Amino acid sequence: MLESSFRIGTVAGIRIGVHYTWFIVFLLLSGALATYFRETHSEWSGSVVLLTALVTTLMYFVSIVLHELGHSLVAIARGVQVRAITLFIFGGIAQTEKDADTAATEFYIAIAGPLVSFALAVLFYFLGLWLIPYSEIAAEALKWLATINFVLAIFNLVPGFPLDGGRVFRAVVWRFTGDAVKGMQWAVIGGKVVAYGLMLLGALVGLQPGMLLNGIWLLALGWFLFAAAEGSRRAYFSSRLAAHVPVGEVMQKDVPTVSADMSLLYWIDAQMLLTGQRSALVTQDEKTVGLITLNDIMKCPRTQWPDTSVRQYMTPLERFHFVNPANSMFEVLQIMREHNINQVPVMDSGEVVGWVDRERLLKILELHSAVGH
């Protein structure tokens, strides 16, 4: 879901992005703050109320970015690279290249975010006190920001994955049992308990007069936490499986091939549409010289397909990203992600012995996860 975001900047090499769902919560929160300021400060003009609500909402999301940067900078310092921070409807999330490799690293990364939020709460509180004689409006906004950052820190320390507290809980179990799997299992259980609690609370709140919207929000938050906990469990065990299964065991040995001199139209009609194979290795005199995919073909105007050879639109051999049968599925998936490719040939002793595609690997991982392997 979070791939549908646009970039707003970069901090320390980390891409900061905004998902389209962020605009929903921005409008809702701005509206709620405008109502709050209007009710508590009837002497403020409409323009002051609206501007204060908008600026305060923006500062709240700046706080979330800083919270995620706390996680990210500690992660980088501990050897875990961070690709991006994305703001979305339920807050923010930092996307890392891999999981922490020790309980200590997991603990330090997890606790950094809440500590940043606590620090911001203290900063905004004292800034608000200092500004009271100069600007009641700024002081009121800072008071709200101090409160919401404190609440954010406390909520994130609830021991349920994927909340920060759940990751801290995972690190503690991991540290005392010496078993990362047990740490993850208990953290996910905690996350589901928290999710069920939020959904129950949402149902109870929603039944109260005038509280339907708040109840729906709690229900949605609980559902999101449950889905995130289950998704994290599947991703964690899939990555562990992928790290231990050599690609030679799951590669496709019957590699589709096409002659370099064949026309694009003939390959499409005689091979692709009949077999469903969207890509093939290109051969010349029984030697592999390239790779052709449907995406490559679509770069050529359709009217030119009959007179254009496969060679003209293939990816040449020297630009291939090869793997060998001993490489793990995890390593292959990393190569695919880093280079934005879907097929990787498998080479052994200088010969192509098979290939793997992203869809096949993900399907295998999904099946293992479904049967609890």
From TrEMBL:
Gene Ontology cellular-component terms listed: plasma membrane
Topology in the lipid bilayer: Multi-pass membrane protein
Record-linked PANTHER family: MEMBRANE-ASSOCIATED ZINC METALLOPROTEASE M50B, STAGE IV SPORULATION PROTEIN FB
Co-factor note (free text): Binds 1 zinc ion per subunit.
Alphabetical list of SMART domains matching this protein: CBS
Active site, per annotation: 68
Domain CBS: 251-308, 314-371
Binding residues for Zn(2+): 67, 71, 164
Location(s) in or outside the cell: Cell membrane
UniProt keyword list: CBS domain, Cell membrane, Hydrolase, Membrane, Metal-binding, Metalloprotease, Protease, Repeat, Transmembrane, Transmembrane helix, Zinc
Record field: transmembrane: 20-37, 44-66, 107-132, 144-163, 184-205, 211-229
Name under which the protein is recorded: Zinc metalloprotease
SUPFAM superfamilies according to UniProt: CBS-domain pair
Stated family: Belongs to the peptidase M50B family.
Cofactor: Zn(2+)
A biological process term (GO) from this entry: proteolysis
A GO term, aspect molecular function: metal ion binding
